[in-house]
Every structure is written in structure tokens, then in C-alpha cells.
């Protein structure tokens, strides 16, 4: 079984995945490896729709890897990915309110997120649009705003243990 972390930009998917497993797969990094350029540059050259095609390709190749996958916030944009996610039973949604996510997105200077360059109002609309998909696809939802990555990982570990009992 593969544990898949979903949630909006800034929700800490990669950080939490790193606590859950030192061998976790970071979908964005795998995409960068495949396209041979930073995601922001790919968006500029080829646009978002082409990015979603590659994202789906890479995701479908890795979804049965059996480890932990940190997805990108837009994984729920494509109907094909939503179908894949609906078939999984360990999809964990890292949930937070928009203002704490926006703060985290802006504090993260290392990660240039093309869709986060649009200003708070537009990004909040995207958040509102995606919220239902994240929630609807989640087998477990963890509120992350007031928790450390270690606390979040512990909640997920405990839930997984309960699932197996
Ligand atoms: C995206 C989120 C990013 C990355 C790309 C698109 C999105 O991942 O996949 O910039 O559409 O929300 P993170 O959620 O890891 O920032």
C-alpha cells in the first residue's frame, strides 16, 4: 500500500513525508528529473496543461511503489489523478486554513511556485476550488496549522496502525 499525502501548497507534504519515511518520493522532484528543468520554467515554456500531463504520467508510474508519496498541491486538478486517488486507501489530506498556508508559501523562498505568484486573492480562489476534492479523496484528514511535522507524522502512524488492527 502506498501512503499518499495531498493538500494545498504550503501544507508541509514533503516535510511530513520526510518524517514518515527517509525514502519518500517527492512527486515534484521526480517531475523535475523527468522534464530536466525547474517547474516554474516548464510552466513558462509549455503552460500548466502540459505540466498536468507530465504530472499524471509520473504519478501513475509511482502510485503503486508502496512507500510514501508527497504530491504537488495541484494533483487533484486532473480527473485522471482524482480517479487514481479514489482507488487508494491511504490518502492523507494535510489541511490548513488559507491564511496560514499563504504565510508559509511566502516564507518559503527556496521553492518558486508558479501558481503562487498570482497574488493572495487568486490563490485563495484556487484553494477554495480544490478544498472539496482534497476532502472528498482523503481517507484521513489532519489539521496541520498548529502542529509540528513530527506530531503530524505521529497521527498518521497511529492511524495506519489502527487500520491494520
Ligand atoms: C502546484 C503545486 C506545487 C507544484 C506546482 C503546481 C499547484 O507543489 O506541483 O508548482 O498547482 O498547486 P507544492 O504543493 O509542493 O508546492
Automatic annotation (TrEMBL):
Q: Where does substrate bind?
A: 28, 52, 73, 130
Q: What is this enzyme's catalytic activity, as reactions?
A: shikimate + ATP = 3-phosphoshikimate + ADP + H(+)
Localization terms from the record: Cytoplasm
Reported EC number(s) for this entry are 2.7.1.71
Q: Does the keyword Transmembrane apply?
A: no
Q: Name one GO molecular function term.
A: kinase activity
A UniProt-annotated Pfam family: SKI
* Name by which UniProt lists this protein: Shikimate kinase
Question: Which species is this UniProt entry from?
Answer: Lactococcus nasutitermitis
Amino acid at each position: 500500500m502506498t501512503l499518499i499525502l495531498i493538500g494545498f501548497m504550503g501544507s508541509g507534504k514533503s516535510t511530513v513525508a520526510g518524517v514518515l519515511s527517509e525514502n519518500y518520493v517527492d512527486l515534484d522532484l521526480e517531475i523535475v528529473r523527468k522534464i530536466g528543468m525547474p517547474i516554474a520554467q516548464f510552466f513558462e515554456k509549455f503552460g500548466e496543461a502540459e505540466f498536468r500531463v507530465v504530472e499524471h504520467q509520473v504519478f501513475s508510474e509511482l502510485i503503486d511503489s508502496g512507500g510514501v508519496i508527497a504530491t504537488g498541491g495541484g494533483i487533484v486538478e486532473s480527473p485522471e489523478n482524482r480517479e487514481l486517488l479514489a482507488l487508494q486507501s491511504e490518502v492523507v489530506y494535510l489541511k490548513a486554513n488559507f491564511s496560514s498556508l499563504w504565510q508559509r508559501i511566502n516564507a518559503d523562498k527556496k521553492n518558486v511556485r508558479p501558481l503562487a505568484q498570482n497574488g493572495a486573492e487568486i490563490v485563495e480562489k484556487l484553494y477554495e476550488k480544490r478544498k472539496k476534492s482534497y476532502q472528498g479523496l482523503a481517507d484521513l484528514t489532519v489539521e496541520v496549522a498548529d502542529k509540528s511535522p513530527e506530531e503530524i507524522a505521529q497521527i498518521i502512524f497511529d492511524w495506519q496502525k489502527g487500520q491494520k488492527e
